[in-house]
Amino acid sequence: MKKFIDKAVIMDEDQMDRALKRIAHELLEKNKTLDNAVILGIRTRGVPLAERLKKTIEEIHGIVVPIGVLDINLYRDDLTSLTEQPVIHQTVIPVGVKGKKIILVDDVLYTGRTIRAALDSIIDMGRPELIQLVVMVDRGHRELPIRADFVGKNVPTSKREKIDVLLKEIDGVDKVIIKESIEEDE
Amino acid sequence: MIKEKDLLGLRNISTDEIDEILRNAVPMKDIIMRDIKKVPTLRGKSMATLFFENSTRTKSSFEIAAKYLSADCTNLAVSTSSVQKGETLIDTAITLEVMGIELFVMRHGASGAPHFLGRNTKARIINAGDGMNEHPTQGLLDMYTMKDKKGDLGNLTVTILGDVAHSRVARSNIWGLVKYGTKVRVVAPETLIPVELQRMGVEVYTDVDKALKGADVVNVLRLQKERQSSGLLPSLVEYNKFWGLTSKRVELLKDDAIIMHPGPMNRGVEIMPDVYEHPRCVVDEQVTNGVAVRMALLFMMLGGKSGDDIN
């Protein structure tokens, strides 16, 4: 196991809050209407972020957008190489995905493999009108041709580094930190 | 994660493992209810069913579970296979194994047959019923159904009614439930109560009405007519009269109790036709839950590390 030490705080509570507010505005600007939209949070940290985005949109625009939860473990491309088998959780999308504008929410965009799994899992449930991606942090190093439509903060990183998005709902505190591996690369 | 290479019974499996199977079965059940009943999780994995005894639901349930998870499932039809030419069990399994089969689902009339096969193959084995020993996936789906309908297994009183002596379903239910502290009552004609039952941690009754009174769940066993040649019972009519579950007897259970049966049912023998129609009879749901539980198990046994990495 690699060990990591904290290097810097790159977003605090206010910055995260402002980023979500900006994204709420941009979402409406780009889509004109959110009548047919569904916000989908990817487990684990995409879920509270999705809830906050829903709340922010409601506060700013007075629009109530339905929300759902996506578990992508059944669609992972690395199941056979994991040492610890993941426990599968429920995917809950109360209104379905067929014909909807899907706003997919996750904390960090890195290789793009999680998003690939999420896209496959959504499309297996029906044909949405479109899918847009919201992430709190884009740290680069994509391994697939995937990009985010709305980004809280772009953070150039090295592969030795790690980004942790901490959320009050799970971690008791709101901040984004960058960590660095203290061991040599394998 | 299933720690042993093979799943042979609920006797030697931990509650951690059972909990994980039952937890994973919840999202699997959602997949069964979807329009597109398929996920790519086990794409490229190969398994085979090896049924030396007849089966409708267990065999198709495993096959359907495999298909929903995108695993390839071969069904060896034993009656038209080289088993009829005298090929041994091990040779039959190894033949399939060298074609790439990674997991066998096996049913056999002899208790211990899957254990024997498991010691002689690299492929993982799931016991789908061995003689009068165990039928672990039926036990798991029964436990899933009880937990889903009635909550914490430790707070329940479960009455198992019927042909316990010949029933691998009863044994798997008992081994599984007693681990959770469930109060298990067993009631059967004295000729169908095996001697080892007392030592399994259950209460043994011979009075049906007493055994049913106040129970949360009744699990009615199929009277195994194919194994009754030795005169243990006078007649099916008499069995029905004294031991069959009637609507009147259902009233002895708790008001919100559920009625279960592993199938296939002998209507008019161990269960009356109108009991099957009862609103709290969950027989059909048990079958659906069976697919979900088997999906969870296949995911856990084929999805992670391959059998080679597990001793």
CATH topology of the largest domain in chain B: Rossmann fold
What do the pLDDT scores of chain A average to?
Answer: 93
Largest interface, chains and sizes: A-B, 19 and 24 residues
The CATH class name of chain A reads: Alpha Beta
Could you characterize the architecture of this molecule?
With about 190 residues, chain A is α/β, with parallel strands linked by helices. Chain A is about 25% helix and about 30% strand. Chain A has a single domain, classed as Rossmann fold. Chain A has helices at about 15-30, 45-60, 115-125, 170, and strands at about 5-10, 35-40, 65-70, 100-110, 130-140, 150-155, 160-165, 175-180. In chain A, the strands form 2 sheets. In chain A, strands 3-2-4-5-6 form a 5-stranded parallel β-sheet. In chain A, strands 1-8-7 form a 3-stranded antiparallel β-sheet. The longest helix of chain A has 19 residues, at about 15-30. Chain B folds into 2 domains: about 15-135 and about 290-310, Rossmann fold, CATH 3.40.50; about 135-280, Rossmann fold (3-Layer(aba) Sandwich). In chain B, the strands form 2 sheets. Chain B has a 5-stranded parallel β-sheet. In chain B, strands 2-1-3-4 form a 4-stranded parallel β-sheet, sandwiched between helices. In chain B, helix 1 (about 15-35) packs across helix 5 (about 135-150) and helix 5 crosses helix 6 (about 170-180). Chain B is globular and about 55 Å long. At the A-B interface, helix 3 of A face helix 1 and helix 11 of B.
